[in-house]
Amino acid sequence: MIEITNLTKRFGAVQAVTDVSFAAPAGQVTGFLGPNGAGKTTTLRILLGLARPDEGTAVIDGKRYVDLPSPRRTVGAVFDQAGLHPGRSARNHLRVIARAAGISPGRVDKVLEFVDLTRAAGRRVGGFSHGMRQRVALAGALLGDPAVLVLDEPATGLDPAGMAWLRELLRQWAAQGRTVLFSSHALAEVETVADRLVIINRGRIVRQGRTSELTATEQGVLVRTADRTRFGEIAAREGWQVNGDGDGRLVIHGTDPVEVGRVAAREGVALTELSTAATRRLEDLFLELTRAEA
Amino acid sequence: MTNLVAAEALKLRTTRTVWALLAASMAVSALAVASAVIVSADTDLDLETDRGMRSVLGLSATGAIFVLVLGIIVSAGEYRQRTAVDTFLTTPRRWRVITAKLGIAATTGAIFGALAVAVSVATAAGAYRLEDVTFGLNSSDAWATLAGAVLYAALFAAMGAATGSLVRNQVAAITGWLAWLAIVEHIAVGFAPDIGRWLPAAAGQALVRTPAEDLLSPLTAAVVLAGYAVAIMAAAIVIERYRDA
Prior knowledge:
By secondary structure, chain A is α/β, with parallel strands linked by helices. Chain A has eleven helices and 13 strands.
């Protein structure tokens, strides 16, 4: 169980994370979703004692990471930014961790086999592909057989087969009653495996809840108009939620097409298209967030 | 802490850098000793005297410059290779990491120093024979010089490891130290000789009993150098409390 409460962190003038609170319960996969630069890595770094928060707390089973008696046996972490020494072999990388953490050396070969690197274990990591390196890092996280997994962008550099394998691993891990928290900037990577979603943008949590609820489809009104600004003002006044669909159309929730048509006519806004579609509000929202970043 | 020191030793053994530095350190020490003997006639160095022996054997510490670099790599190398994150995930109490690194650097430094001394003594013996001078390690002064050279390597490795933890940037730490030893300290000594003998390079000279004026006693020199290492390490530990990994 991971609990993050009112976390705030500034880097000089940049407000990286503001008042972030969420929990990742045991037995579930929690997806931590947000565009690049939204504050995901900063939050996870604070959780793992690599950075200090200005305010707030981040605890694992009630303890700060630095206070865990045996961190590697409690939490397994994969960090995109964590390097592997190019001159060291995969096996030696794991032996170093096992030695420092007091984990039995026998675990090294077990996790190497688990991530399917037994044959490459003696080779220097410098010659590995990104996907292989990712698996070495994952093997390091699994070494202490931890009850909590924290993965920062674990899907980066994995091919589709590797991705499917990772998904299966995360599901199994959660099914065994363990806690899984992983971050991603791509909704598609997260929604198929996460039981819960936490969405962060510009350092603030914008939405969180069960994936099934957040990704439920609902009837939306699709509108195309040349006068988007004016239409936006009207929508705001009427209390509708409007997002772009990435294709020049607007997706409106909280009303129906009859009402939209009547209001547009009354206000004198010409609509060149008016229809309905089953849309997913989360996808619309996320598209909007990622577009704002671009 | 035992696990941590053992893990640091394993880190060193599992990359090639350490062997390259060992070879360089031994080669440079042997070369310095050999050339001192060969040019002794020109420099009016009487090889047979106690003073001559100390001058020659003291040069077995020359290669310790590479041991200093090794110490820096032990700590700052983790930032260069971006392995520091992994290290701090295993051991989130960073003072433990910094202390273990100082320990392993000093130990490795002593071993490397001993090997450089062994090669240097063999080289000196050969060079003496070429010059037709008797080589005898029967004075306690000669042995004290050799012990000093081993300690020299250990203490400079420790200072290197502490500096690497403090500044994190491997290139900056190495250039900083080399500039200090080769340039800055000489200028400082010129300006203020009273202070100069307390500085690292001069203290190192005292440690190997280099026959020169104004040096500290070997024991004081050892304490001073150890003091530098501990002071830099303490600064690193304090600053690390306020620093993100």
